[in-house]
């Protein structure tokens, strides 16, 4: 893996990528943050050695380097998922590459369905903890100890300092920011009524199909990480509506300006 990471990094440096202070992973329908980035260079995923290619139509496929709020950032415009047929190794490979480029902190966004019905469509949830239901670990491979401690402590997977800044920023800007537990499943199918009931019983506030692998690897690499989830739909097993992808994307777009404000204020203060 080390050779692959180095080859990817060498390619990016040859294209003009510098050393980022912060890495940002943009989830489903959450690309507007790039409007505020002073872009210096970008690379398509399918040109970067060993990078997967985004196959979901509403996920772009570019790695972008530039400046946001005075900080050098590297931004993933689109991410990878297990449901696309990739392994956990593939899904998290970009995090390891961004770390090797020089990334010091990681910010993650995603779209999710509310299990906690106090959370409404178009609102935001700061992820305080998570439940891994993806059936594996991105650290379960031979030689992982060469890249970091094999038995990674996950008692505090999300950085308390950055989370506090997010909460203060939300309060200052009158933005509703819930705090809760994110459950990550494989997908791509949505949950059944029984599965929504199960997720509630085990303590999930929201459910999605991403993020947790990247968080685990960030902790493996010793990178402080924080994540915000956009609530795009509600998983009410007693009144379950059929999935409407266009509605999900519309709700993500509705919440996106608030998420951008929070990300920008965080970058100012770290």
Automatic annotation (TrEMBL):
Top-level class of the enzyme under EC nomenclature: transferase
Q: Which gene encodes it?
A: punA
Q: Which GO terms describe its biological process?
A: nucleoside metabolic process
Q: Does the keyword Glycosyltransferase apply?
A: yes
Q: Name one Pfam family in it.
A: PNP_UDP_1
Annotated keywords: Glycosyltransferase, Transferase
Organism of origin is Christiangramia forsetii (strain DSM 17595 / CGMCC 1.15422 / KT0803) (Gramella forsetii)
Documented EC number(s):
2.4.2.1
The similarity comment for this entry is:
Belongs to the PNP/MTAP phosphorylase family.
Could you tell me which pathway this protein works in?
A: Purine metabolism; purine nucleoside salvage
**Molecular function terms from GO:** purine-nucleoside phosphorylase activity
State the protein's name. Answer: Purine nucleoside phosphorylase
Provide the Gene Ontology terms for cellular component.
Answer: cytoplasm
Q: Which domain of life is it from?
A: Bacteria
Which purpose does this protein serve, as stated in its record?
Answer: The purine nucleoside phosphorylases catalyze the phosphorolytic breakdown of the N-glycosidic bond in the beta-(deoxy)ribonucleoside molecules, with the formation of the corresponding free purine bases and pentose-1-phosphate.
Query: Domain named Nucleoside phosphorylase: which ranges?
Result: 22-267
Matching InterPro entries:
Nucleoside_phosphorylase_d, Nucleoside_phosphorylase_sf, Pur_Nuc_Pase_Ino/Guo-sp, Purine_phosphorylase
